[in-house]
Automatic annotation (TrEMBL):
<keyword id="KW-0677">Repeat</keyword>
<dbReference type="InterPro" id="IPR002885">
    <property type="entry name" value="PPR_rpt"/>
</dbReference>
<dbReference type="Pfam" id="PF01535">
    <property type="entry name" value="PPR"/>
</dbReference>
<dbReference type="InterPro" id="IPR011990">
    <property type="entry name" value="TPR-like_helical_dom_sf"/>
</dbReference>
<dbReference type="Pfam" id="PF13041">
    <property type="entry name" value="PPR_2"/>
</dbReference>
<feature type="repeat" description="PPR">
    <location>
        <begin position="185"/>
        <end position="219"/>
    </location>
</feature>
<dbReference type="GO" id="GO:0003723">
    <property type="term" value="F:RNA binding"/>
</dbReference>
<feature type="repeat" description="PPR">
    <location>
        <begin position="286"/>
        <end position="320"/>
    </location>
</feature>
<dbReference type="GO" id="GO:0009451">
    <property type="term" value="P:RNA modification"/>
</dbReference>
<protein>
    <recommendedName>
        <fullName>Pentacotripeptide-repeat region of PRORP domain-containing protein</fullName>
    </recommendedName>
</protein>
<dbReference type="InterPro" id="IPR046960">
    <property type="entry name" value="PPR_At4g14850-like_plant"/>
</dbReference>
Amino acid sequence: MLLSLHKNIHALKCQDQFSSISLSKLQNYTSPHEVRSLHAQILKTQHSEDLSLLSRLAHRYLLCHCLGDALQVFAQMKREKDPHVFLWNEFVKWYSRNGFYIESMEFYRCLSLSKTPPNEFTFTFILPACAGSRSLFHGRSIHAQIILRNMDSNLFVATALIDMYGKCGDSLSSRQVFDELRQPTTASFNALISGYVTNGEFNEAMWVFNQMLISRERMDAMTMASILHACASLGALQQGRWIHELIERENIEKNEYVGAALINMYAKCGSIADSLKVFDEINRRDLVLWTSIICGLGSHGLAYEAERIFLSMIRTGIKPDTITFVGILCGFSHVGLVEKGWEYYKLMSSYGMEYSLEHCNCMVDMLGRAGKLEEAENFVREMDMKPDAGIWGALLNACKIYKDVERAERVVEEVLTLDSDNAGWTIALSIHKIGLLFKVDIIWIFY
């Protein structure tokens, strides 16, 4: 009897020791092979019922992006007992952060039907999934559940709600949640400002930023990047300069997002020289920064300067993306450099990129400005994708410049097949004809 008891105690000690060693190992394992090897040891040593160990194992699988293995461990645990909310949260978070928003919401639904109640972390993980999928319906439903569980006063949950409503286009609800906060933080201010900027409510974003200044709340790089976008969209150069000075004065990190926002703001406000100055002052340049200055130069018609910087970027080993090519094609379009435009348009295929409507729009605009209307029309009709009203509009504008009424009539017919209710295009064509008849310059109206 005593011998049997001694053996049992010894076995339990060995199990505890193994569990402790296994948990310690798991924290250091970073590869799927290592985690799977430990999983095999757990199965061999009959520790497959240790829920704490299995929970950590599933978590480690998720960190290694081994979703299938993690789900197997989760299913094994669920057969014994509902897993701890920690593990539910890890799955909700993993799906959400990896762009699987529907799966994240489905996992949350399963949690809400289980015996395990969600906690405040659950809501901070599921709300970004609603924001990412732009699912306002699900976001409001979860908000109601948050209120029922008396978690709406939690600062992290409230900030996630502000962010969700902003990204889903409901600025009013976002502001209501913000106004209910006793002491807004940097994160909650940032979420509200970012939401206003996303929804094109730039004056409101500026007002909230001023309130942030008055409250003396700490500002960070995200604050500055968002408010600089608002300045750029408003053409508010003076405010943009003041914010730039504030960044320097407060020693706020000038990361790639702030740097790109400064370059973009100065370019859109007409001060491309300041854009170049900001670019030259930043030593560590990533694709975002290179693309920002190329797009800025392109929008100002400085095609050769944009090309020079593009080639410098290539020499540093950074590969362009589709937005980079939009910027440089825009530059060639502005000055009618057709051969250069074709060269860079074809270069995209060597990077394995697919053409978008934006690239095609640049090409049509470029050909139209150069007076190559027939080539532009053939380009549009031979596109792999269906041209939208913007592309037809670029061609129509070229028809107006070169007084090509016959081609303009064909273009309007195509536009009306896209949007038969858009009578404005017919009116535009009539105005075009009147302008030709009386040989006067008139405003070209688009609807």
